[in-house]
Every structure is written in C-alpha cells, then in structure tokens.
Amino acid sequence: TELSLIRNFSIIAHIDHGKSTLADRLIQVTGGMTERELKEQVLDNMDIERERGITIKAQTVRLDYTASDGKTYELNLMDTPGHVDFAYEVSRSLAACEGALLVVDAAQGVEAQTLANVYQSIEHDHEIVPVINKIDLPAAEPEKVKAEIEEVIGLDASDAVMTSAKSGIGIEEVLEAIVQRIPPPQGDRDKPLKAMLVDSWYDPYLGVVILVRVMDGVMKKGQQIKFMQGGTVHLVDRVGCMRPKIEQLPELGPGEIGFITAQIKEVEQAKVGDTITLAKGGATEALPGYKEVQSVVFCGLFPVDAADFEKLRESIGKLRLNDASFTFEMENSAALGFGFRCGFLGLLHLEIIQERLTREYDLDLITTAPSVVYRLTMTDGSTQELHNPADMPDPVKIDTMEEPWIKATIYTPDEHLGSILKLCQDRRGIQLDLTYVGGRAQVVYELPLNEVVFDFYDRLKSISRGYASFDYEQIGLREGDLVMMNILVNNEPVDALSMVVHRSQADPRGRALCERLKDLIPRHMFKIPIQAAIGAKVIARETISAMRKDVTAKCYGGDISRKKKLLEKQKEGKKRMREYGNVSIPQEAFIAALRMG
Ligand code: GTP
User: Fold this and answer.
1) 426 annotated to a ligand binding site
2) Contact at 8 Å (CB) between 124 and 35?
3) d(Cα 252, Cα 62) in Å, to the nearest integer?
4) What ipTM, to 2 d.p.?
5) Ligand 1: centre distance to CA 22 (Å)
6) pTM of the model
7) Mutation test of ligand 1: which of 20, 27, 51 has the most ligand atoms closer than 8 Å to its C-beta?
8) Can you tell me the distance from the alpha carbon of 68 to that of 179, in angstroms, rounded to the nearest whole number?
9) Is the CB of residue 325 less than 8 Å from the CB of residue 345?
10) Hey, is 346 helix, strand or coil?
11) Which ligand 1 atom is the nearest neighbour of the CA of 163?
12) C-alpha 41 – ligand 1 centre gap (Å)
C-alpha cells in the first residue's frame, strides 16, 4: 500500500472507558466482523482479560476504510496493554504508530492511567485525537471533560469527537478524524529491510507469531531474516495481517503493520523491541529504544498438594510459552516442599499468572510473600542481587542494601485525599506534588516498591471506594535501612513468611503478623510460641495456649464409629496443613498472614 494511504494508530484509555467497545465498532463499521462476532469482543481474547477488563497482549487489526475523499485507506489499529506493569510493551506499540485516539469516559473524566499513556504518546510525537465516549449516559458531561482534557493534559479538545461506542454514535466521525488528522507513516522501500518486533505470542497452530512494523524495505515469505539483538537467523514462512481473522499477504511494505511466522519455537527468541533485518545485506544500525525486560517482583509458588508438583511445572511451562516476561526456577522450601520461584513485571502480572494457574489449570497454590529485588553490597566490595529473602547472606557480611523506588501518580476525588496521603506517608512515601483539577486531586509520591507490593492497591481501592487510580514508574535503587525479619513458630523459622522490611516498619509488621498467626493457627496439645525476630532479637511474641484434652475424649461413651469419624475428619483437615516444628499451619494462614496493613 502507498504510504499516503496508511494510518497506524492506537487507542489510549483508562480501564472501562470503552476502548474495546470502540475498537469493535470500528471493525464492524469497516466490515471486518458480523454483529454476532462482535458480541464476543475480539480484541480482549483471553477469559481473564475479559473478566478483569484488562488487555494483556497487544493485538492489531487491519481495517479498510473508504473515506469521504473517495480513497480507500489501510488503517492499522494497535491494541495496547492497559496496565503499568506492561509499560515497555506499550512503549513499543506506540513507537509503531503515528497517532492515537484518546478515549475518555464522558461521565468519569481524565484518570491517572490515561495521563501516563497520553504522556508516552506525546513523547512519541503522536497526533492525538480526543474521543469523548459514553455521551449516551445521563451523567455524561462532555463539555466539562473537554475542559479537563485541555487543563490537565494541555491538548486542544475543541474538535474532540463525541461518541457512544455502545450505541454506535460517532463512529464514522472517528474514522474520518483518523484519516484527516493522523499523519501517514514514513519509510523507504528501496532501503534494506528494517522492521520492529512489536510483540510475539505462541499460537498452537502457527507456532510463534510475531507482530512487526516495517520501517524500511519489504518483508516477504522466503526471506532469511536476522534479529539484531537476539542474534538469531530465521526463515520467514508466512506474512500477513489480521482483520481480525488471519489473512496471508504477499508482502508487508514500509509503514505497514502485520505479522510473520518464521519457524520459531519459543517466544523468548522473539524479544519485544528487537530490530528485524535481512541476514545478508541487512541494515547495520538497530532501531532505538530496545530494552531487556526484567522481573521486578518475585514470589514462590508451591502446590498445596505436593503430588501436584509435576502438574504445576507443566502448567507454568505452558503459560511461559506465551509470556517470556515471566521467569521461573525450581525452589525447595522447608515448609512448602518443592515449588517455583517466579519473577514478574509487577504485582498485577503476578496476580494474572497466579489466577490463570488456579483457574485454567485447576491448581491449588500457596504464594509466598512477594518480594522486590534488592542490591547488596558486601563488606568485601562485591555486589549481588537478592531475589528471595530465604537466600539472605549473613548480615555481618553486608555493607549496604539498596531497594527499588517508584514514582507513583494517584488521582482521586477530593474526599479521599486525607486517607490516601496517610497511606502513602505510612509507607515511607515522599510527597513530590499535589494539585487539584476540577474536584479531584492528583498526588505524586516517591515510594519504596517493597511497601507497595504488599497490599497497597487493595488499600487504595478500599479507602477510595474504588475511585482512586494509581500509576507508577520505576526510578531506581536507593539505600535503605533494611532488615530481614523471620517468623518463628514453635521456635522454627517459617521460610515462607520471611521478609525484608525497613527497620522502622519491622515492629508493627512483626506484631501484626504474630497476632494474625495466633488467630489462624489452631490450638495443639502443647503451648506454641509465635515470634517475629530480626537475627537473634525477638521483636514480637504471641502464644497459643495448649488444648486441654484430646478431642476424642468428648465421645467417651463408647461410640466407636463416631470416634472413628472424628479421627478421619481430623486427618482430612491435616492434608491442608503444613507441619512446622511439630505445628500444623493451615494453608489459609500463609495467605491471610501476608494480607496485612
Ligand atoms: P479495558 O479492556 O479493561 O481497557 O476496558 P475498555 O476501555 O476496553 O472498556 P470496554 O470497552 O470493555 O467498556 C467498559 C464498559 O463500558 C462495558 O460495560 C461497555 O459496555 C461500556 N461502554 C463502552 N462504551 C460505552 C458507551 O458509549 N456508552 C455506555 N453507556 N457504555 C459504554
């Protein structure tokens, strides 16, 4: 296709503002989908995504649109993941486009996530077309939202397009705005091939599918291509686009977005942001912006039933086929047996994987306390990364410890501001900025990531009754006064509950954990001390008093069958327990103990 007839764009929106609904409408109007297919929202194609309303994997759809000028345009709609954990993927998708639709809910207005994505889009020099959606709602205030877009983002919203994606109002106008306002891509057909690897995923029929944006040159079946960062060479065996159904094409020219397959076995080989060129006579310089993805949050995943270990291994392997950004290695815990230490891009990513394992693969799992990656500088001058609190070296050998910090932007209705500031303050936050925009406050805080991985989101949501939105970026490591806190049950350390905490937080955390465990662990025949300790120093202590008598004593009177039943019941209960220094800890205790304020 001629460059002047191509438009590449993405849709920026806060969760629930109507991105998928609008995308589906655009596909429907341009003829890519029937009404019935529309019902099964195509862009969000994983169950969990749909249920949680989150788009995880970017997908692209090609639309043919005959505009009012009589010409037929090729529109490539790039769907971007909607969550901060996937910020790098978003940045690569945006780098493949020249413009974006900024969808804002006419009743909700601008929210934190919208802001972060808009700023990224502006950084990529995108032409941004504001779209005010849900104008059918009685609570819609499009004029107010327009003013907010101008005030908060600094974008001219005077010719924002008014839509109701749900009822199909304003869809033609959106298409015309894309054609008239978003610039066509640039590129040179005669230069050596240079394409960006925007995304990759595993398809059971096609193998690894790669989404590309061709910058220069032409991509064709039969070419020997090279991944410049990955260093591998592959044979292209399919070239095509999605409408949203897969359609094979003879080629992808400069400025075009589409997919290729190249007999690649693992998504790991197809790194997002890599530059694809020809194996022979290719480009010499890679595209800018490539980054190696790194896990930010780690936790252990263990099967509740040790017999499920193989099943867990297989399931993790399957998930990993599609998601090279999550890492795992085998781990052996004294308490929990064999499991895996897994690394994630962020908390939400962790939750998604955990939920898929539980739901799609029907696994009962114990998740240990999530931990961030600390950098240790040892007294001998060497440095090391700590991914698992259980691997903490002897503290006397540690000179300094550094922890990752983030810059968080929270956007909230005024009335919840006080409690949110307190929450951030309690989590060692440093306030950078506080501004008011139309009855809402925007607060910017620097926070240590380890204070956020516990239950920050949950707290924020409950404090604000769901109205506050949260967004963050990493800002690097800072030295902290960090200590390792162990929990001892009947004088045995419970490795799954060990955590690295800031010294100032150790006392309240330790006390809270002990109190929780006291309620969660059932009484035994003997007294059970529960302690929180830093090194040899106990900082909190609770005691579970001993049970007076054998449970079966109650049934004296000789009813043997009743006694037997009771014993069986106890045995049944045991299965879901973990033995620790002769103490049985119910599985729920691990999870519940970690969900604390
Ligand atoms: P994510 O995929 O989670 O990012 O959300 P999204 O932005 O794609 O939102 P989605 O399209 O799933 O829409 C969220 C909800 O808003 C759904 O219940 C839609 O039916 C509804 N919705 C979307 N557009 C409109 C609209 O124009 N009017 C009304 N009343 N509801 C709409």
Assistant:
1) no
2) no
3) 12
4) 0.97
5) 8
6) 0.76
7) 20
8) 10
9) yes
10) coil
11) 27
12) 11
